[in-house]
Amino acid sequence: MHHAWLLAGKRGLGKMHFAQAAARALCGAEDADGSAQHPDIHVLTHLPKDDKEERKRGDGKPYEVRRNITVGQIRALQQRLTTRPTLGSRRAVIIDPADDLEKSASNALLKSLEEPPAGTYFLLVAHRPAKLLPTIRSRCRVLRFSALDDDALGNWLTSQVPECDADTRAAAVRASGGSPGLALDFVNRGLGPLDTLMSRIVRDGDRNFELRGQLADVVGARPDRERIAAILDLARSVLASEMNRADRHAWSPLVDAHAELVRLAGQAPTYNFDPGLLVMEIGTLLASAAPASERADV
User: Fold this and answer.
1) Mind giving me the DSSP string for 171-214?
2) What pLDDT, in 10s, does the model give residues 55-76?
3) Which one is predicted more confidently, 221 or 174?
């Protein structure tokens, strides 16, 4: 089998679960459910942001993570790869998500992909494969994960959250773009009211800023990074949905607003945005996509 695999697809399609199952199969792990750690399966992901967050992790509490997977993590892994596997002839390295490797970490990883230790297999989870170095992508076989269709996703969501009402379920299916993980996150984060407000802003505008004020109230004063990312994804989904129902001649403001949201989503993980101002900016971009009679007032 090829030594490096790129598991590519949008967030929430189960790529990490697949990587864990594949790693356990490669290493001959007996507990197929992955309930116990295996000494020959190495997982690199975001570390806690600082010592305070590390203590939270140690206590089993929610904690904030660093924005990137660091070169120090790759170097530490490479030191471990100089020895033989512990229990057999194979070991697996999972990097999740590989598209969050900092530049120096990517360059360091490339050396291991070019000259892989015997019996070592790399499984790179990537939500945005284009962010990876072309030289890394060229050394991997690509396994793409496809989104589910609306019916399949709706049925799955019903089985997971049977108490979810039909309107929320339909909104979650539309907003997630076929991703089970994102659909479940939509429900668990209570994004239904935000979806309703965003849709109203895009269709009706927000001449007196009332809806944007409600949007800020629903988001809350101190949303964490994951909630901000979910809100940005939702805003883009609302615009895409509106584009599907709008006449072609009305696409231009929708496309422009969507492009700006893509730019913001790319900056949010690394820029120190004020959450309140960022939410107002999202609301204003949505309002700018409303009919022309409203856009002049935003």
Assistant:
1) HHHHHHTT-HHHHHHHHHTT-HHHHHHHHHHHHH--TTSHHHHH
2) 988 888 888 888 899 999 999 9
3) 174
Residue ranges of domains in the chain? 4-144, 189-295
Helix (H, G, I), strand (E, B) or coil at 283: helix
Q: Please tell me whether the overall predicted TM-score, pTM, comes out greater than 0.85 for this model.
A: no
As a whole number of angstroms, the distance between CA 10 and CA 4 comes to 19
Q: And the tokens for 29?
A: 């792990």
* Cβ–Cβ < 8 Å for 92, 23: yes
Neighbours of 35 (CB within 10 A): 6
Query: Which residue type does 63 have?
Result: Y
DSSP character for 129? Answer: G
Helix, strand, or coil (residue 42):
strand
Segment (H or E) for 41: strand 41-44
Structure tokens at 80: 């471990």
Side-by-side strand order, sheet with 141-144: 41-44, 91-95, 120-126, 4-8, 141-144
The conformation of residue 221, written as its DSSP 8-state character, comes to S
Which residues share a beta bridge with 95?
44, 124
The pLDDT tens digits for 162-212 are 999 998 999 999 889 899 999 999 999 999 999 999 999 999 999 889 999
Residues 15-50 pLDDT 10s: 999 999 999 999 988 765 555 689 999 999 999 988
Q: CATH classification of 4-144, choosing from 2.30.40.10, 3.30.360.10, 3.40.50.300, 3.30.1780.10? A: 3.40.50.300
Tokens 């969050």, located at residue? 100
Whether residue 16 contacts residue 82, with contact meaning beta carbons closer than 8 Å, is answered with no
